[in-house]
Amino acid sequence: TSKELDTLVEQMLEIWHQKPTELQALRLQTSLLSLLLNLKQLGQQHEADHIADTDESLLSTVNQLMAKWRGRPVRNEEIAAATKYSTSRLRVVFKQAAGIPLGSYLKNYRLNHAMALLRTSRMSITEIATQAGFASPQAFSRSFRKETGKTPRSYRKRA
Hints:
The chain has 159 residues and is mainly α. 80% of the residues lie in helices and 0% in strands. The chain is built from 8 helices and no strands. It has helices spanning 2-16, 22-68, 76-83, 87-98, 102-120, 125-131, 137-148, 152-158. The radius of gyration is 28 Å and the shape is rod-shaped. The model is unreliable at 47-53 (pLDDT under 50).
């Protein structure tokens, strides 16, 4: 497109200094339209590439924040502030990037972390609930049972 742009500028300067014929004006108009379409396609491709980069970056950032803030409940508002999005915009952008709502992702992240701790540590259920970022042991147990069909204790015995 750089070559097209140079050619177009030359044509425009040439025509600028003389009264263009109808054919010259039409050629110039066609060249301008072609250039604009090419620029639009390039812009769309760049935007698609940028969105893909942003998607990966957002997921990576959320994972890093969850790891950094491990051991306490993390709210959507905190992630939004850290990623410089409004809470509502973060929800939309995250769903586009991950394919699932942010709240579901965070709950799955916490539950997977808790499951790993149940399998590999001797921490109490209360300690695991806290470490995984649940507000209380009761909230952890309810969520765990709802998702797995087992209590944390019975999961630990079978792991």
